[in-house]
Design brief:
The chain has 320 residues and is α+β, with helices and mostly antiparallel strands. The chain has two domains: 17-43 and 80-181, no CATH class; 194-319, no CATH class. It has helices at residues 30-42, 70-77, 90-99, 156-161, 189-205, 212-227, 233-260, 266-292, 303-319; strands at residues 80-83, 103-109, 127-136, 141-146, 149-154, 177-181. The longest helix is centred in the C-terminal third of the chain and has 28 residues, at 233-260.
C-alpha cells in the first residue's frame, strides 16, 4: 500500500508541540491543524506559516475561519496546492495521486470518522478536512491526518466515508478536494525565516482596518442572549466560530512571533497570548451566562482582549 509519508503510522504517532495538551487551545480548526501535522511530517517548521493570523477579522456573525494561504505554502515550503477535479470515484482519484507522491486534502463527513468520538462520530453529519496518506481500497482502510493527529479507519466507516452504501445508480456527492505537490527536498531554515519575515509584513499590512475584537464585543451580549433560546448543542457551534477561532488564532500568532525572534517580538507575542487567554476565560463566562441567563457581565468581558489587540498591532508597527 503506497503512501506519501511512509515512515508514519497511527500507532506511536507523535503530535507536533503546537498540539500539546498543555496549550490553551490544543486544537484550532481542521485545516490549520492538518497542515501543522503535515508540515511536521515533511520535516519543516509549521511555525513559519503562521503570519497570516494577523489578518483575522470579525465578520459580523463569526470570526474568520483562519486558513494558511496557498501562496504562503508555496513561497515558504515550495508546496503547491491546487484543486483536484473529482469526476470518478473519490477513492480512485486518491489512489492515483498517492501513487504520484501527492497528498489529497478532502472534505469528508465526520459522522464516519472514529477520531471524532464524543463530538460527531455516528451522531452528527458535518464537513471536515482530512489528508489521506494511505489508502487500501480492497482492504477498506485509510490512514489520514485530521485535526491534531494521524488516524486510521476501516470497514463500515470506510464504506460510509466513500459512499459505498448508496444504491446502484444513486448520484454520489463529489467533495471539494485539493492536492499538494511536494518538492524533492524541504527548504532550509534560513529560507523559511527570511520568507516568513517578509510575509509577516505583508499580512500586517492586510490586518483589519479597525479592532475586530472590539467590534465583536459590541454585539456579543445580544448574540449570547439569543443563543440562550437555542438548543444547548448550538452553544458549542457558536463558541467554536467566535471565541475559539480568535483565541486559537492569536495563540498561534504568538508562537509565530516567538519562532521568528523571541527578543524582537517578545512584547507583541505577550499581547497575542493575552488575547488567547481572555478568549479562553470568556468561553467559561459564556457558559455561565447561558445557564443563568445573566448577560451584563459579558458587556466588558472582552475589553482586555481588545486592548491587547491594539497593543499587538502597535508593537508590530514599531518593528515592521
Amino acid at each position: 500500500m503506497s503512501s506519501v509519508f511512509p515512515a508514519i503510522r497511527p500507532d506511536g504517532y507523535v503530535q507536533h508541540a503546537l498540539h500539546s495538551s498543555e496549550r490553551m487551545w490544543p486544537e484550532t480548526n481542521c485545516y490549520v491543524d492538518l497542515w501543522i501535522e503535515v508540515l511536521n511530517s515533511f520535516g519543516v517548521a509549521p511555525e513559519a506559516m503562521l503570519g497570516f493570523t494577523l489578518m483575522q477579522d470579525f465578520e459580523g456573525d463569526q470570526f474568520t475561519f483562519f486558513k494558511v494561504p496557498l501562496e504562503d505554502l508555496e513561497a515558504l515550503y515550495d508546496i503547491r496546492v491546487t484543486e483536484l477535479a473529482i469526476f470518478d470515484r473519490v477513492e480512485s482519484h486518491i489512489q492515483t495521486q498517492i501513487g504520484r507522491g501527492r497528498l489529497c486534502l478532502i472534505e469528508m463527513d465526520s459522522f464516519y470518522m472514529p477520531d471524532t468520538q464524543g463530538t460527531a462520530y455516528r451522531t452528527e453529519h458535518g464537513k471536515t478536512t482530512v489528508a489521506v496518506n494511505r489508502l487500501d481500497v480492497a482492504g477498506r482502510r485509510i490512514e489520514y491526518f485530521h485535526n491534531g493527529g494521524y488516524f486510521e479507519l476501516q470497514g463500515e466507516d470506510f464504506d460510509g466515508l466513500f459512499q459505498m452504501h448508496l444504491a446502484d445508480g444513486a448520484p454520489p456527492f463529489l467533495p471539494y478536494t485539493e492536492f499538494a505537490k511536494f518538492p524533492a527536498l524541504p527548504r532550509d531554515e534560513a529560507h523559511l525565516r527570511e520568507t516568513a519575515r517578509r510575509l509577516l509584513g505583508l499580512h500586517y499590512a492586510r490586518r483589519p482596518a479597525s479592532n475586530p475584537i472590539r467590534a465583536f464585543a459590541e454585539v456579543f451580549p445580544k448574540q449570547v442572549e439569543a443563543l440562550a433560546e437555542r438548543p444547548f448543542d448550538f452553544f458549542h457551534k457558536y463558541a467554536f466560530n467566535t471565541l475559539r477561532q480568535f483565541g486559537a488564532n492569536f495563540e498561534l500568532a504568538g508562537d509565530h512571533l516567538i519562532w521568528l525572534s523571541p527578543n524582537e517580538f517578545s512584547g507583541a507575542a505577550e499581547s497575542a497570548r493575552r488575547i488567547s487567554e481572555v478568549a479562553k476565560s470568556v468561553q467559561f463566562q459564556l457558559a455561565r451566562a447561558v445557564t443563568r441567563k445573566k448577560y451584563d457581565p459579558l458587556i466588558t468581558a472582552l475589553d482586555p482582549a481588545a486592548d491587547a489587540w491594539d497593543s499587538l498591532m502597535a508593537s508590530l508597527a514599531e518593528r515592521l
